[in-house]
Amino acid sequence: MIESTDRTPLPRDFFDRPVLEVAPDLLGRTLVRLTDDGPIELRLTEVEAYAGEADPGSHAYRGRTARNAVMFGPPGHAYVYFTYGMWHCLNLVCGPEGFASGVLLRAGEVRVGQDLARKRRLSARYDKELAKGPARLATALDVDRTLDGTDACAGPDSPLSVLTGTPIPPDQVLTGPRTGVGGDGATHPWRFWIDGDPTVSPYRAHTPRRRRG
User: Fold this and answer.
1) Which residues are CB-contacts of 89 (< 8 A; sequence separation ≥ 6)?
2) Which regions of the chain are under pLDDT 50?
3) What is the pLDDT of residue 1?
4) Which runs of consecutive H residues, i.e. helices, occur in 47-172?
5) Contacts by 194-197 with C-beta closer than 8 Å and gap 24+?
6) Which of 49, 91, 119, 165 could form a disulfide with 23 if both were Cys (CB 3.0 to 4.6 A apart)?
7) What is the pLDDT of residue 94?
8) Which 8-state DSSP code applies to residue 3?
9) What's residue 57's pLDDT?
10) What pTM does this model have?
11) CA-wise closest residue to 92 among 82, 83, 110, 104
12) How many Cα atoms sit within 13 Å of 198 on the Cβ side?
């Protein structure tokens, strides 16, 4: 049985805090995606924090570009990027405007709109796999670059919003290195997930890519 959750939207002040406070506090919250075919909602179960120009693992480490401009604020907006020429990933910008930081949404449990998510995630054998990983989450929710810059605090008509949901007690939150991050940011324990949740993605260490030719 799914417990009742708080349907109150998270205010912008929630996101206007240091990224290492926002990231674990997003666990258990309800992410709402309004699509042309209907709503999809998921309970966030795994996230990663990225601290902008202070973080070697961040897209904003070397400063502002056209690609990462949304990361510099204001908080509460979506930063969507395209990776490996195949997948999109969804982040929520946080912290004070002008300082680029954000939380990568890595995994979640789809609770509303499972049929819509299944149509986009045909390879998922079980519902727990629908959003098990950041690219799978974005695919299941029909997220692409057209949503980059979307204000998740704009109200119920926004394509993306975050509801209070059911926050996770600190003793049920685990933390460890971020998946696939190498270099100086490899050991930062900035990945947060709900202990024992079946939708959490497996950890994979960074694997250096070999140059061809």
Assistant:
1) 80, 81, 83, 104, 105, 134, 135, 138
2) 1, 211-213
3) 41
4) 114-120, 134-140
5) 194/27, 194/28, 194/45, 194/46, 194/168, 197/45, 197/46, 197/109
6) 49
7) 96
8) P
9) 84
10) 0.93
11) 104
12) 6
- Assign residue 144 a region (left: φ > 0; alpha: ψ between -120 and 50; beta: otherwise): beta
Asked if residues 112 and 165 have their Cβ atoms less than 8 Å apart, the reply is no
Judge if the upstream peptide bond of residue 96 is cis by omega within 30 degrees of 0. no
Residue labelled with tokens 């909602």: 41
Lookup: tokens for 83: 């990776």
Q: Which amino acid is at 73?
A: G
- Reduce the DSSP state of residue 207 to 3 states and report it: coil
Q: Rounded to an integer, what distance in angstroms lies between the CA atom of residue 144 and that of residue 120?
A: 13
Residue 189 CB partners (closer than 8 Å, separation 6+)? 175, 176, 177
